[in-house]
Amino acid sequence: MTAVKNARGNATGPGVDTEAIHQRLADAIATHRLPPGTKLGEEALGEIFGVSRTKIRQALFQLAGDKLVTLIPGRGAFVAQPSVREAREVFEARRIIEAAVVARFIEVATAKDIDALNDHIVLEDEAIKAGTPQSRNHLLGDFHEVIARAAGNVVLTEILSELVARTSLITLFYQNTRGAAESLEEHRLLLKAIRRRDRAAAVELMHRHLSNVEAGLVLREETPAGADLRAALS
Ligand SMILES: [Zn+2]
Question: pTM for this one?
Fold first, then answer.
């Protein structure tokens, strides 16, 4: 079976695989062509992509794993909408966990760990200068995971990874009024405190950094708006 291309050059037809459907839907969600709350009907999507409902269901299941889609029993799949409350709780949890993580990092970090953190900041700087939002955002989030991994508590690292992923979804859905350069600057200040092994300053800077990121979001409850699936995907 072969895929055919529609007017925009996107592959459709029975040859399209689950991964391609997953990717197209993820892109449409990330670029807000499919806004939060949009119902993702299996039948409608099956027609749009020209594939069976089984493939659609698999793609939706993957998207639910990415937390981009919410599956509601008996009602179907919807583009995920992190609530304002959820957003605030994620940041609160991050402040608590990351204050402990950075304090632990200062206790155990070797010179090599600190150099690795510095190298990471250099990459963030390059991505910001290159103006590539996707790798920039990914690197800014990863900074926090680098600290957690080096701090050495596997359980805390796993919890933080999930919280960082949820944060990117939240910053995707709530307009971020803060520039990436501000986060980079705060990462640099943190590194300075870490180099001095100044635990109190590092904990304080981490706390303030996460509060600043949260304050940069326009957190107001929005009524879920539907979108026309065919228009968004074709
Ligand atoms: Zn940060």
Answer: 0.73
